[in-house]
């Protein structure tokens, strides 16, 4: 799938298909129970946002457009999978999965008073109800993850660690929370760096080479998305540093 000149890549089984199937199963159970929502049938329309804000915003605009202006008969005939008979009122949006993308989508949805539920968004910024009054989530914020990671560091007696994060909202807010907590208990940050998940190999190599500059800091606290972690691990193999670092992350 390609949008805005960006190739979305292959379908991710764990992050994509499994969550879609779990959604279908959950809806089937809810709709088959007459005591949960009597005379109400829940439906879902799922779209790929490619972990990319412009695509997510485009899909959100289309959701809102269809909610405000129900599709005409001619439009329905042109759309194989969606009809006026099957489409009900839009009552909310689940996702996107990334904090940075969810932030931008929420800025749009709240203009239309549409609730949004984040299933994996952990940014502390989204807890600010003065800014995001229509956002709810089912996972704890970065602050608690930062606290747990700091507890691990202290449990092993480490007082000098490096830090790296994905260069977007989740990574930035998470590492900031860790630094604030670490300062209170005299845990020092030796080296700090950030990198985009989509960055080329050369950028990951620069990050790893930066981290290796301090020989006394082999423990690396990592507030990173999965693709960032994969990029860092591949870089350590390229640079023959496989056993040099101990990465701590979720």
TrEMBL record:
One of its GO terms (biological process) is G protein-coupled glutamate receptor signaling pathway. It is a multi-pass membrane protein. Gene3D superfamilies: 3.40.50.2300. Keywords: Disulfide bond, Glycoprotein, Membrane, Receptor, Signal, Transmembrane, Transmembrane helix. Signal peptide: none annotated. It holds the Pfam family ANF_receptor. This is Receptor ligand binding region domain-containing protein. GO terms for molecular function: G protein-coupled receptor activity. InterPro entries: ANF_lig-bd_rcpt, GPCR_3, mGluR, Peripla_BP_I. One of its GO terms (cellular component) is membrane. It is found in: Membrane. Residues 21-248 form the Receptor ligand binding region domain. It comes from the Eukaryota.
């Amino acid at each position: 799938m390609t949008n805005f000149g960006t190739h979305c890549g292959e379908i991710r089984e764990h992050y994509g298909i499994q969550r879609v199937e779990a959604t279908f199963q959950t809806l089937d159970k809810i709709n088959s129970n007459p005591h949960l929502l009597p005379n109400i049938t829940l439906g879902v329309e799922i779209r790929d946002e490619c972990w990319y804000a412009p695509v997510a915003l485009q899909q959100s605009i289309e959701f809102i457009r269809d909610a405000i202006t129900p599709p005409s008969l001619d439009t329905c005939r042109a759309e194989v999978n969606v009809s006026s008979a099957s489409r009900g009122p839009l009552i909310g949006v689940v996702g996107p999965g990334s904090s940075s993308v969810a932030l931008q989508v929420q800025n749009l949805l709240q203009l239309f008073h549409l609730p949004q539920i984040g299933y994996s968004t952990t940014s502390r910024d989204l807890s600010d109800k003065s800014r995001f009054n229509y956002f709810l989530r089912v996972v704890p914020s970065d602050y608690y993850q930062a606290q747990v990671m700091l507890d691990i560091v202290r449990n092993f007696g480490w007082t000098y660690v490096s830090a790296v994060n994905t260069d977007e909202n989740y990574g930035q807010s998470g590492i900031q929370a860790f630094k604030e907590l670490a300062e209170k208990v005299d845990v020092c940050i030796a080296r700090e760096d950030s990198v985009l998940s989509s960055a080329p190999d050369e950028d990951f190599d620069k990050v790893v080479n930066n981290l290796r500059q301090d020989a006394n800091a082999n423990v690396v606290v990592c507030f990173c998305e999965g693709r960032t972690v994969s990029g860092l691990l591949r870089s350590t193999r390229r640079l023959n540093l496989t056993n040099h670092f101990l990465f701590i992350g979720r």
